[in-house]
């Protein structure tokens, strides 16, 4: 797997009426320490070519292996450092980062050094946290939600309540445009009910094998034909964008399922913007 596709989505909102042009965000997920050319040159070139205003990271840029007590990180670290030098970067944890944090003894305190590196570069580490800023004269809040490792166990789907989000993040202000970075997309109905105007996710690797006309075949939790496998979804008037991911792990296989870099243009609903 040496290539990736670039996908564009447009999200319209009435919550940012002062936008004069699309606010463009790049979405990266599930790199799993892969490098597209030396120092991820090809990936960086594609990002630069499309001039994003910021970068959303939806988790699993690294590989953490608890059995081997190993972390594979160098390509991911180099990419993050390069991105942070040019763009605002908003990062949420995936299950691989969470594993490092949850089991520090297995990884010799690697998570703490990881977070220090990110923060030293100016990366916004949104681990059950949030950041509010002004975009187009309106308030936009970006949240990062870290799902507990118990929700990632194979052959199970643990019940998930909206209170899990309010306990971790509080209640979003409905007057803000609220973006939620949530690595696992399967709980999108709860994310939407909580108040996320836009949720960005990854984790499912597009279903690993995609069947034309049907979609992704299987999730990392071994669930067949996942609903939120990849692409754009809308429920309760709220949006979800799921990345197919940029790398792979454990099952190093992609069929009809190229790796993916995503750009999201958030626009004023009243504007007539064409690409």
TrEMBL record:
<dbReference type="InterPro" id="IPR051158">
    <property type="entry name" value="Metallophosphoesterase_sf"/>
</dbReference>
<dbReference type="GO" id="GO:0046872">
    <property type="term" value="F:metal ion binding"/>
</dbReference>
<protein>
    <submittedName>
        <fullName>Metallophosphoesterase</fullName>
    </submittedName>
</protein>
<dbReference type="InterPro" id="IPR029052">
    <property type="entry name" value="Metallo-depent_PP-like"/>
</dbReference>
<dbReference type="InterPro" id="IPR004843">
    <property type="entry name" value="Calcineurin-like_PHP"/>
</dbReference>
<dbReference type="GO" id="GO:0016020">
    <property type="term" value="C:membrane"/>
</dbReference>
<feature type="domain" description="Calcineurin-like phosphoesterase">
    <location>
        <begin position="24"/>
        <end position="206"/>
    </location>
</feature>
<dbReference type="GO" id="GO:0008758">
    <property type="term" value="F:UDP-2,3-diacylglucosamine hydrolase activity"/>
</dbReference>
<keyword id="KW-0378">Hydrolase</keyword>
<dbReference type="Pfam" id="PF00149">
    <property type="entry name" value="Metallophos"/>
</dbReference>
<keyword id="KW-0479">Metal-binding</keyword>
<dbReference type="GO" id="GO:0009245">
    <property type="term" value="P:lipid A biosynthetic process"/>
</dbReference>
